[in-house]
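Figure 3 (text version): structure tokens given as input.
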């Protein structure tokens, strides 16, 4: 079985005006294009209470980095008390959303994701030697890349929300 470690875990919180549709598209597109993840939605749940919605979304993105390493990102959106509002933009009114958002991301490094070293106890031993003495710098570089991509995702999403809120 492949070994995985969480190398990045963080979240952002935002309270204000935003377009859920635009935020959803922005986040999906960014994860698909920048780090090149294949993103799959594992959960989408809405709870409606009158004119207010609570939304939970979970994504998992995967990208092969090499024959040995794989990058997995787990993203969770939790939107509370989202409602429709109309705001003035220039001379016209536009319909958008208002509410509280929490976006969490975990960046995971998966080593030996195909399980090539899991066949026998001897191969497992060789894997630990390989990781400890042959490729420790490569493991560190991959972990830094994953952390950087996850941190950049949160930064770009925060910037997007800040711009959306200033409309």
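Below: residues designed for each position.
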């Amino acid at each position: 079985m492949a070994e995985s470690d969480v190398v990045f875990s963080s979240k952002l919180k935002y309270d204000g005006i935003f377009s859920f549709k635009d935020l959803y598209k922005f986040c999906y597109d960014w994860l698909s294009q920048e780090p090149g993840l294949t993103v799959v939605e594992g959960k989408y749940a809405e709870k409606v209470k009158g004119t207010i919605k609570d939304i939970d979304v979970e994504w998992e993105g995967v990208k092969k980095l090499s024959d040995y390493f794989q990058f997995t990102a787990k993203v969770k959106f939790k939107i509370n008390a989202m409602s429709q509002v109309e705001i003035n933009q220039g001379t016209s009114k536009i319909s958008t959303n208002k509410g509280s958002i929490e976006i969490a991301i975990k960046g995971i490094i998966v080593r030996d994701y195909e399980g090539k070293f899991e066949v026998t106890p001897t191969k497992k031993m060789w894997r630990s030697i390989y990781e400890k003495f042959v490729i420790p710098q490569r493991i560190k570089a991959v972990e830094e890349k994953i952390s950087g991509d996850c941190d950049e995702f949160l930064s770009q999403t925060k910037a997007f929300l800040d711009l959306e809120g200033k409309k």
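Strands lie at 3-18, 38-49, 52-64, 69-89, 92-111.
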